[in-house]
Amino acid sequence: MDYFLELFLGGLTRGSIYALIALGYTMVYGIVQLINFAHGEIYMIGAFTALIIASVLTILGLNSIAILVIATAAAIVYSSAYGYTVEKIAYKPLRNAPRLSPLISAIGMSIFLQNYVLLAQTSDFLPFPRLIPEFAFMEPVSHIFSSAELVIVSTTMIVMVLLTLFIKFTNIGKAMRATAQDKTMALLIGIDVDRVISVTFIIGSSLAALGGVLIANHIGQINFYIGFIAGIKAFTAAVLGGIGSIPGAVLGALILGWTESFATGYVSSDYEDVFAFALLVLILIFRPAGLLGKAETKKV
Amino acid sequence: MLEISNINAFYGNIQALHNVSINIKQGEIITLIGANGAGKTTTLMSISGIVNPKSGEIRFNGEVISGKKPDKIVQMGLAHVPEGRHIFPYLTVMENLDLGAYLRKDKENVKKDLEHVFDLFPRLRERKNQQGGTLSGGEQQMLAISRALMARPKMLLLDEPSLGLAPLIVKQIFDIIKRINQEDGTTIFLVEQNANLALKVAHRGYVMENGHITLEDDAQKLLVNEEVKKAYLGI
Predict the structure, then answer these.
(1) Measured between beta carbons, which residues in chain A are less than 8 angstroms from residue B69?
(2) Which residue from B71, B91, B147 is facing A191, i.e. has the nearest CB?
(3) Does A64 reside within a domain?
(4) The complex's ipTM?
(5) Edge-to-edge strand ranges of the sheet holding B14-24
């Protein structure tokens, strides 16, 4: 039973990270119908930023909680700036181009950012300091659920709630939903659609950076390539749940996390990706729009 | 109030508008009639800043608006109800209406205006928590007009409000359009294929053919004009 619970909680942790990244994919897709393939790289840049800041602060002798908070904040700001800039450089000029063009541009951006970090940093795995302390109250259950995992899962949950409230009740949140549903009409009621798109990229990038810091801290090492793998997985989660749907991205991420965790635990870690993608194929056969996706029906 | 002078607009290489000039004075209902594809919608889209005319100038209350971004134009007091209504399908009626007042800061007056549109269209009050996409065509048209009114516009651009609606609903909506003009003093620019209906509520009318304005006159005179009768009124 302990083993099952451990896998369940491990899957929940994994799923939480996927969810943080998948939200960026799904929100951007909802607004501009673009798969932002450079999104995984934003997550990777977040992890690198946090590592650099954390290294400096460690030398200065701050305590680990302070380092964690400052490094995370820096990662969020830095990654947001990247996300914002990528949109302005690589996607905005192509807004009225055929849909394939921004997609290629996104893949180009992804390759560019990976190689940029490779050149600026190193191709080796770098150790990431463990900044989340072991909480005393977690002692009795720490063999199945670590403190770091608790922080990941609870942070993700809090962020999800905040995001939902933001989108439901703030003016800019309403403008985001309106833009996603009908861009021309959004313009006609006076919504600055360019601004909405920028805000969407900033929010998505912030969430990815947060995910990047949390997972790097949990796994303990990073390199320039982590964004690609995590990006593909999170994208799978977003498609699984129905791309464009926010609850869908979270649901898809959790299902994917559990599938991988149980496949690793009960079969073999070699097969975790096989199970993850087999699940994707299976769900898309029966629900082509994803679990919570809305099938496109156009009224004439 | 609105002066369109000699605008030319293109979609790619195809010219949709040829030297179109239209003049609308405060308090008027002006209609633009014409067949499918004549360029009526493009004219409205040019006013709202969705389509950018290649040459020519559009002025609203003396200020040049051609080339401005759509949100700046809405801010100046122009509200556009597009063809096909464009309701946000997954937002509730209330949320659709709230978004109509997106740029307004005077929250107290917004509340008053909400009551006003609910008085104009009591049906919307009954449906206020329903999703926009679940409304009937007529209700959606009412919501589209109400959403535009929530911006408290000086001028309302209406694109084919009668499209696809039952005659009884059309009559109801046109009565409201007249009321908005008479009671609120809102200037109205009405684009319609249903020429008979449009000319009956309008003060003046323009006729458009293949991107050119071919006729301009008092609505009453256009109603008895032989060419208009033959081409658009089916008499």
Answers:
(1) 192
(2) B71
(3) yes
(4) 0.89
(5) B14-24, B2-11, B55-60, B63-64
* Distance of residue A287 Cα from the nearest chain B Cα, in angstroms: 21
Closest residue of A to B95, CA-based? A174
Residue A291, in any domain of the structure: no
Interface residue of A172, A185, A296 to substitute, partner B, most B CBs within 10 Å: A185
Q: Take residue A24 and report the two structure tokens written for it.
A: 């960026």
Q: Containing domain of residue A207, as a range?
A: 2-286
Counting every residue written for chain B, the total comes to 235
Per the domain annotation, does A16 fall within a domain? yes
What is the count of structural domains for chain A?
A: 1
Domain-located, residue A215:
yes
- The distance of B228 to chain A (nearest Cα, Å) reads 29
- Written as tens digits, the pLDDT of chain A (300 aa) is 788 999 999 999 999 999 999 999 999 999 988 899 999 999 999 999 999 999 999 888 888 889 999 999 999 999 999 999 999 999 999 988 888 999 999 999 999 999 999 998 888 889 988 888 888 888 888 788 888 899 999 999 999 999 999 999 998 999 999 999 999 999 999 999 999 999 999 999 999 999 999 999 888 889 898 998 889 999 999 999 998 888 999 999 999 999 999 999 898 888 888 888 898 899 889 888 888 887 665 444
| CATH, residue A10 | 1.10.3470
Spatial separation of the C-alpha atoms in residues B54 and B16, rounded to whole Å: 11
DSSP B43-92: HHHHHHTSS--SEEEEEETTEE-TTS-HHHHHHTTEEEE-TT----TTSB
